[in-house]
Amino acid sequence: MKKVLLVLASLLCFSTFTTRGETNATKSFTISDLRVEYLKNPIGIDVAAPRFSWKMESDRRGISQTGYQIIVSTDKQGKNIVWDSEKTASDLSVHIIYKGIALQPSTRYYWKVNVWDNDGNKKTSRETAFFETGLMNSGWNGAKWIKCNDTDAPENESQTDGIPMFRTECMLDKEIKSARIYSSALGVYDLFINGNRVGNTNADGKLCFDELKPGWTNYSKTVFYNTYDITSFLSKGNNAIAALVSSGWWAGHVAHGEYGSPALGFIAKLYIVYKDGTTETIVTHPESWKTSREGAIRMADIYTGEDYDARRESEWKKVGFDDSNWHKPTENKDFKGTIKAFIGPNVQVRKELEQTPVSITKYNGHTPDEKGYGMVNVIEERKGTDRLTLDKGDTAVYDLGQNMVGWVKFKVKGNAGTRLTIRFAESLNDDGSFARVNDGPGGSLYRIILRSAAATLSYTLKGDKDGEEFRPTMTFFGFRYCDVVTTEQVEIESMKGEVVGTVAEEGSSFTTSHARVNQLYKNIMWGQRGNFLSVPTDCPQRDERLGWTGDILAFGRAATYNADLAGFFHKWMGDVRDGQREDGAYYDLAPRVWGNEVGNAAWAEAGIVIPWTTYLMYGDRGILEENYASMERFMEQRSTQVFDGYKYNGGGITHGDWLSPEGNEPDKKRYIAVCFYAYSARLMEKMSQALSRKAGDAYDSKAKSYKELYENIKAEFQARYVNPDGSLKQKGQTAYLLALKLHLFPDEKAQSDGIRYLNHLIKTNGDRLGTGFVGTAIINQTLTDAGSIHTAYNLLLQRNNPSWLYSVDQGATTIWERWDGYTKEKGFHPATTMNSFNHYAYGAVSEWMYRYMAGINPDENNPGFKHIILTPYPDNRISFPAGQERITSVDATYHSYYGKIRSAWKSDANGNMEYRIVIPANTTASVTLPKERNQNEIAENNVPLDKAKGVVSYSIEEQHIHIELQSGSYVFTVKE
Ligand code: BGC
């Protein structure tokens, strides 16, 4: 019952706020974080009408934008204007579309924005913000893909004896004003000018290198080119341009033969503007370049690793190198698709995440015992250092303390010709026994689960007296441990773990009063970092590392809370579309490799779910427009699946509720397929509505037909799967979850019986999960929406198998493919071919952590967190399963495109609650806080709600308090 309803009309007159202790300084606002196409100062974008975003920052309550003016010019001073939006009345500051004169290729444009607030104050952005176009339609000026035509080279490029190198020298006889290189490879490439590795300068002024470029795309359709500002790399006179290409995702084992056995290739165009205004273009061409395989990298492959012989290093990247015994390349005609501008964000070494060993163990051989391999013979154990003397015959095991993805960077001293071999693994064998599924003696690397991925680095020393430093550049490993053996004594001076992955800004944080839950969140973050490398992958270590769509369908929403993925998903949807089969089905992998798994339920629908998620989280209408036609084709394919007397069968049933402990028989899989068809229809309805500009337009009528489709699927679902008493014919947790989430029950009674039955299933399963990929991804969210928040907390805090904290208790530092991939009790899981220790899907629970524990939600009707729905669900369980404790505090921040949102709560022993809430400038929030019947003392910062600034209106009900809030920081207390 409502006790009070106040609409504080006076507070809408914002200027009155300044009288309440606010100074002029706090009154002001700043404009920050200027972005174009999701990125800060991007170089080489080929978008005809790029989109602009910025943030308004202020600690003043109730501040909002009333207008903006974007000015784009070709000069820093803003004189040569190509677009002046003029003052536009709008409160939007995300994805504002360029509407100026046609952008020119290879041109840098500067931009600034004026913003007016609701007090009439005007501010101008201060950052030097720019974007630079790529080649657009200006073409490649005759640049050819070149390949190393060395006839001795074996067919399989991933096993070559030396990877191709390409070089040319060019005389630039005038002073250079600016220069760019546009370059790409069929394979993974690295680029050098006059001996220096090419990279771009970041906003902080530091040179930054892209790794594993140009990244992974569907090469039957698309390869990216990169753009680098090479002005400072070139000088008047002779210059050397050099590139290395390895098999990468194009021809390496990871391509699984998708493109046959294609040759590696390189293409580049240099565009130089001289100070006198003239220009020059230099391109790759068989006649003007040279190639050889006689360099230091003898072998490189993503699965296999890298073999580097430092004795073969030479001055080939520099001017004056004698390349007379190099060959002329030939033209590579193996690529039939389109070269497109790279779409960010880049893959880079993430310096802030560098890992140092927590221990080094040196052993020599092992002593078998009656149980199996026995244990390694430990010679020495060291902690707190990464330095070591290693003798021939001994093995050093480095423990980096964290399962991570990237490679090691090391410094070593020894004689020329000494060969170091470094292998990688996620775990160590424990006691070496066969019974515990060890693959070697206790203390050695456990590598059977890598399957055919050799994951090995070899380095042959050149014998530098000062030591030699090395890191690979053409491969990556998923590992926590590495072991090192040597052919002669060496001093290993340092060994660091460098984290390599897509740079997704991690502006969010999540901490609770529960140490194990905090560790779980940390593990989820590491799972995300490791598996977001150019594309979202299933795992980063074994011979997969593939873009399985079901995994990101499960984890995608959670991932968008953990980091900024707008650009990453925009790029990846290109891979999904490129792989779309002629009949409209999406592949189960994007980019498409690995044979013929296509159109399967709960995998292929990622092509529908990811655009919707990106729209919701980032307000990105563009991603809906870009993918709409493709999504419609997908829905058409689904409509053809008429068989077994049913019209609405949904997709294929290869995967079902993958790895479900409740089993995964064909009937259950078909049930899941039907539910996902209903899910797609609902999302298509919502996306059509989002695109509709006015009632009756084309999108509006599409929305209506998708609604009708959903209703039809629902009707057939009920006839097929619902018993006369309203219960489901499918009995498991996942079946009930899907029916609840998608509102497929015939009536409210059946639905509430369903909720009761689901709770019963979980209770009789010992408060444990009975779900695989599909069910686990939605279980806590669905339970909470259905009013069973206590069950959700019981599941989160469960310590027995299967549960999230079970893996944490077994020592996990990432999310595992199997809850019991390793157990202290039984050792490794016997399914050694499917046991990854870095598989993010089950990390989907972090979606629930942000959306329900902390309560941070976007508003479907005003997405991108322009309006925030804030509904925290504190842990107010009165009783809970033995061994569990109540969570007494949560503190979550989420970095939205409008700014940082915070939702923190803590409870005291009497159940009194304190909520700290931050709503970014230029946004509003609808807050719902829980309240016990006797809790009637409700205040903001010790002020009653009707007097609190920024509280537009509120209502107090028996069990809830609803508050409409303007931007600002608030502290609410709810007490007896
Ligand atoms: C992957 C999964 C993937 C599945 C498809 C596995 O090998 O690692 O995560 O989604 O295949 O069923």
TrEMBL record:
InterPro entries reported in the protein's UniProt record: 6-hairpin_glycosidase_sf, 6hp_glycosidase-like_sf, Alpha_rhamnosid, Bac_rhamnosid6H, Bac_rhamnosid_C, Bac_rhamnosid_N, Ig-like_fold, Rhamnosid_concanavalin
Signal peptide range: 1-20
Keywords attached to this entry: Hydrolase, Signal
EC numbers: 3.2.1.40
Domain Alpha-L-rhamnosidase six-hairpin glycosidase: 506-853
Domain of life of the source: Bacteria
Chain ranges of the Alpha-L-rhamnosidase concanavalin-like domain: 393-500
Catalytic activity reported: Hydrolysis of terminal non-reducing alpha-L-rhamnose residues in alpha-L-rhamnosides
Alpha-L-rhamnosidase C-terminal domain segment(s): 855-938
Protein name, UniProt field: alpha-L-rhamnosidase
Species annotation: Jilunia laotingensis
Lineage: Bacteria, Pseudomonadati, Bacteroidota, Bacteroidia, Bacteroidales
